[in-house]
Amino acid sequence: MSRNLLYYHLVFTPKYRQSVLDPEKERDLFAYIMGITNNLKGKLIRINAALNHIHILVRLPTTICPADYVANIKRASSLYIKDSRIFPKFWGWSREYSVETVSPELIPRIKQYIANQKEHHKVESFEDEWLRCLSEEERSRWDMKFFDN
Length: 149
Prior knowledge:
This protein has a single domain, classed as Transposase IS200-like (Alpha-Beta Plaits, 2-Layer Sandwich). It has 7 helices and 4 strands; from the N terminus they run βαββαβααααα. The radius of gyration is 15 Å and the shape is globular.
């Protein structure tokens, strides 16, 4: 019997990091992403968004890599958003994204962090937090690309 404990914390933004993810309509997007995840045989553990980015904690099967999962989510949800017009000013997702593996014992902490996104970003902006979390080497490599596309 195979055992899969591959958990990932994903973060991505709308193009140009626009603040277009309306909290009143985000539940529709979350449900759509959950459907995609289920179709890919993954398990969505927690999802939440702030106006300009989205967090997903997911367990993926060994048959799909995180890059393919993100590509599927971005492609399908972008079409859904545009067709349904739930976020009228949405232009698409940025090319860049962040993915980190999560050990099972940290899942409760990451779930809480994701759940508190809106409150958290009243205190610290997404950009400030992102740069604070990167090492000096990573900051020079990123060269702010995450925020520019």
